[in-house]
Every structure is written in C-alpha cells, then in structure tokens.
Amino acid sequence: MTTVGIPQALLYYQYYPMWKTFFQHLGAQVVTSPPTTRGTVTSGSARVVAETCLPVKVFCGHVISLVGKCDYVFVPSIRSIERDAYNCSKFLGLPDVVKAVVPECPPLLDPDIDISKEGKRGFYLAIYALARRFTWNPLKVKEAAEAAWQCHMRFQSQTREEGITLSCALSRMEDGMPSDEEGVNPSSATIALIGHPYVLYDEYINHRFLQRLRQLGAQVVTPEMAQIQELDRGVTRLIGKPYWTYEDEVTGAGGHYLDSQVDGVIAIIAFGCGPDSVMIDVVKRYAQRVSKPFMAITIDEHTAEAGLVTRLEAFMDMLRRRQGWEGKA
Prior knowledge:
With 329 residues, the protein is an alpha/beta fold. It folds into 2 domains: 3-159, Rossmann fold (3-Layer(aba) Sandwich); 184-328, Rossmann fold (3-Layer(aba) Sandwich), CATH 3.40.50.
C-alpha cells in the first residue's frame, strides 16, 4: 500500500482530517510526523538560512523526520483559497524550499492551489492531477473529494458549535475520545487567544501557552470558535477587506473578540512574519481605541519559557486588579 506522509506543522491543524480522508479513500495509508521536539526545530533550522521564519524551520524539521517512513510527502503550494486574498510567501514556495533543503526527502505531492487566479475549475484540476498518483478513475477521485469535504465540514462545526479548540477536535477525530481540554470549569476571566493554529497549538514552540492560561484560571476562546460571519465582520471593522489568506485568524478574531465580553486578548505571532506584524499592529491600535487589555507575544526558537510565563502571569494579575477596581467603582 502506498504511504503518504503529512508533516505535523503549518496547515496540518486546519486540514489534516480532510487530507487524511482524501488519501485514504484513494487507497493510500497516511502517516504523520511526531509532535515537535527540540530535535525537530534544530534539524529544520540547520537546513535553512537564519532569516527563515520559525514555522518554516519547524516544517522542514517535520519533513526530515518523515524520511524513510513514507513513499510520498504531502506539501501543497496554497497561493489563495478566496478571491483577491493571497497567502504568505512561505506557503507559495514551500515545495521548492523542501526540495532544496531536504534533498533526501521522498517525492513530493505538491498541488498548486490558487482559487483567486484559477477559480474552482483550476482547483478541481489540481485535485485530479494529485489523485493520478493513486488512481485514474474519476469517479473514485470525486468520491474521495466529497468524503474529504464532508469530513472538513464536520471538523469545523465541532469547533464553532461546541466551542472547542482545533487540538481538541483533532483528538476527538483521531482517538474518538475527549482531550484533556474538555470539562474545564468556567473561570472569572475569559481570554481570547488569537494567532495562527501552527503557533497556537504547537506546544513545544509556544511552551504550552494555552494550558498555562487555563492553569492560571482563565477560560480560553480561540479564532476557530467564532462564527465565520463574526470573523468577517471583525476584518471589515478593522481593515475593510482581507488582503491575506487566513487573515481572519488574527485580524478577524481580534476585531470580533475586542468587541465581545472577553476580559482580555492575547496574540501570539512568529518572529519575522511580515503579514502578522502588520495585522497585530492593527489589532493593537483597535484594542487601545476600545480600552481592552491586549498583549502581543512574539516567539522564535530562542524564546525562553521563564520569560513567557512571567509575561503571562503579569497580564493575568493586571486583569484581576482591573476587575477589582471596576467592581469598586
């Protein structure tokens, strides 16, 4: 049986159930790289120039960990998934980067997805071209694509309708069991944690930030828990129209949660990310305008756990004092 490897990094957190379902319906076996470790980051960082952003370094490390474990590695080039909004350059050139820095990598499955330019027809052609490695039967490809899309819709509905994180939904779909996140009791402070899933849910690079928030007594909400319409309104409120794909994960979520009943908003971004630096500045300015507590944390492979925890504890202490002062007013 043909084996397809999927790196547990970048867009894995949003699309893994869909990708897995698609390849399995084509008769392939899917394997994933292990969770990020120090070795993953070190091996990936050693292959690229220093200026490369942390998510790409991590991704390359995951690809290296798949060498010898699969027949193909799935590394799509996703340019856009909607009209007039484009992805960060790291996604556009990801297959070329992997081929250049991991020459021992198995052959890549690297479809080029560009909805803005090619439209839906181009998207369908890319799917059929990808599936030819496994079958020439168009009906089988169509069935696999439809099953994958239905799986993706169920995956998204869990996070939005039940208010759970992507990591929790992934645990449910993989193991059939609730994760440790479920059953958390409501607390006195609700914190919105915004950012891209590959930063929010990689526990090694963010030093288990989400879990630490909960340990400090916070109830956490994330971008994928908001409705699509709410995220769209958040983008419109802050910048008018989206310029980058996945902008709703930062700008949209920031705009939505800053106008909601959360007690504070924390953004986590990767050092060296151009689009994120612009989006975070917009969110920060809006937070000042509406007088909502906001903190931005930038991480890279050198971020110290102690410093991150100190900033988090200080932010939570500030919220408690603020709530106390407001209660006395």
